[in-house]
Amino acid sequence: MKGIILAAGRGSKFWPYNEVRNKCATRVANRPAIRWLAEHLLAAGADGLVVVVGHLAQSVRGALHGVEGPVTYIEAPPTEGTALAALRAAEVAEDDELLLAYGDIVTERRNVVDVVNRGREADRPAVLAAPLKTAGGSSGDWIDFKVRDGELKEIWGHPRGSEGHVMGGVAHLRMDRDGEYLRGNPGLVTKVEVGGMPAVEADLSASLQLMIESQHPVAAVESTDVWCDLDKPWHILRANYRWVKHLIGQYEEDVIPDGCTVDDSADINGRIVLSPGAKIGKRVVINGGAFIGEDSEVTNGAIVDGPTHIGRECRVRHYCQLEAAAIGDECILSHAAEFCGGVAFERVYFYHYMEIAGVVGASVDFGAATVCGTLRFDDGLTTHRIKGRAEVPSDGANVAYFGDYSRTGVNAIIMPGVKTGAYSLVGPGVILYEDLPSRKAVFAQQEHRIIDWGPERYGW
To answer: Is the peptide bond preceding residue 233 cis, with omega within 30 degrees of 0?
Structure first.
């Protein structure tokens, strides 16, 4: 059996995090999402991987560098569609049995293994179906699966109303049995409600619907709640929280290697998993459990509310507050800074009385006293625009989203739900009410009135 990972898409709904990497290379618990997935496929029995790349392909290659097992890369146009991308991979796989996965899926290994086992036992194609409540959002956001008695009965493209399942992004196929349905893909999802307006692309779901209509049964495996599709920026939050919670749940006792130090004054409530060289210092408070990476330090009154995943060579100290799913390698959180309700990529600098909430891209530099607003005066949720479509996320609607390599000046204020693009700059004193495009800077303009002043003003 060969593992196939589809990682060619542009990920345009993922802005601003699709500009310097393919979204499949986004880090979840400080490892690329596609690397977790690749290891799942290999553990499920794949004896090698074929990875279909396109948009920012090198970031995918970098994310999989050193993974065990042979990996073959093939190029495909980002807009070709998942069915044709799968066909391209099948042509070079040299195996009739295929374990196919979308590269932006974050899920536990059990779900992948269950799909393989079900496909083999039932001798039919098998797919993963995620409950809509697990996926989040509304049915209109997803490819809708109608599942009954463990069988896939019907597929709808982004319907207006459903309480069922969504496409889970993992499938077990045999080309001698199922290949004709990939080749016969109609080139777009035809089963849509009136006015649905499907995109012209050969989506795998259309091939699955063709199987159903041709009386070629498809087995469905319901996923656990450890599942997330990295489709939009707020899914970074959801994926990290679920995955870190899942990881910490795998440990029945603390892990403290030789050479690590945990000060007696630290107040620890929950499991801690330390890597070599990690240190927990005086007056530290940790709630809910934490992974602390190699040579990282949590010291001098830092407060960590988890479960959270701290990367390697981080400095979390000086009475700061960290209430986040993950912070990446070489981050500094210090001097009473607060980072709450978020995920930070590598080398982010939090310092000097700031209050940040949301997703922070790589190497973001926050000016002193930068603040993110998270509570609206109407107590409502912020409406986001994704490729022009108005969406209100069920979680992460009111936090901020900072693109990679962006910066803020001192006393910048980011209003609820606002995004700043990659390589952007929010100048000192700016109150940012709207999304800032990538590679743009915004500065405040002030008018000054200068008048005479001196001792005479005080009666001298």
So the answer is: no
